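Notebook p. 47: complex prediction with fe (iii) ion.
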Amino acid sequence: MQEHAAQAYGLIGDAALVVRDGRIEWIGARAALPGALERECGETHDCGGALVTPGLVDCHTHLVHGGNRAHEFESRLRGASYEQIARSGGGIASTVRSTRDASEEQLLAQALPRLRALENEGVTTIEIKSGYGLSHEHEAKCLRVARTLGVLEDVAVRTTFLGAHALPPEFAGRADDYVDEVLRMLPLLHAEGLVDAVDAFCERIAFTASQVERVFDAARALGLPVKLHAEQLSDSGGATLAARFQALSCDHLEWLDETGARAMARAGSVAVLLPGAFYFLRETRVPPVALLREQRVPIAVSTDCNPGSSPCTSLLLMLNMACTLFRLMPEEALAGVTRNAARALGFTDRGTLAAGLRADFVLWDVREPAELAYAFGANPRRLTVFGGRPR
Ligand code: DI6
Ligand code: FE
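Predicted complex, structure tokens below:
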């Protein structure tokens, strides 16, 4: 087991880790820790045999939104489909109504418990998308709430502008006009310091590849990285388009084909798999994991926390589902919520444990890393260290 774990996870048995000024100063086998460095340490802690992993990264969430869609869940149980509900004015549009109706304080109060649930499972970096405001006023409000969450909590927040998520009611039947509006909003929100990346929903119930391309052109002009909700319900050629823009990631990907996977591999885009949405929408077509492996596309795993297709605040559960539903190996799933998730956000200073990187890590009461993916509904987290400080 030790040998397998060393290979698959880079696991170091009986390790030591030295932190200085919020960064990892040294990591390796305890026996190899230089004596001079050890004598310099002001404080030492015995982790008592705990497994230490990098802080978890949830790289795709819609955490800030108003209300919930339990009633829609009931409609689907009575037989309506997600697409039918979306086309008849429910779905994302219904969350847009509740999000617009909510004040900044209310949105914050609703998002905080969701964030704390994720933090409780060792999440130290999270991406939060807008996309339920769909006007400058309301997108700005949601992005400000996301930024505030990062100030209130010991967690790093990346914000993504998802203006091209759905068509707001005032633009019904005028998708191209709404894309114009997205292009007007983007530089304003960027100037307000609210945007780290730009995303869009490329789908027959959302935006076409050529509409997404206009949004990506605007992002590129501002020097902002892009990502894309691609190939979730159909193959719309989104991944190939996103790869042309060196997308950080393409997300969902149940309908990804070989052309798309090859384009992602060339561009270095991460494939973000979202088993929660697959499960909750009772999809049957799994993302092409063998193809992603063959093309060496890095795979990340995330909650997609959102009220319509994945009302989920457990990244550990996603580890398990990525294995049971998509057949990832536990080491792939774990890399998917650490190393590759960091990469999907453009971070090079976190996601693994190495000298020079941020000291974000989690102590777990497990004997071997596979246990984190194996058990579901369990939370063996003992302690989180964020930026070198116990949280
Ligand atoms: N894909 C998703 O899974 C979420 N957004 C998207 O583009 C679902 C959003 C919702 O149903 O509220
Ligand atoms: Fe999503």
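Notes: The longest helix spans residues 104-120. The first strand starts at residue 15 and ends at 20.
Next step: compare against the earlier run before touching the bench.
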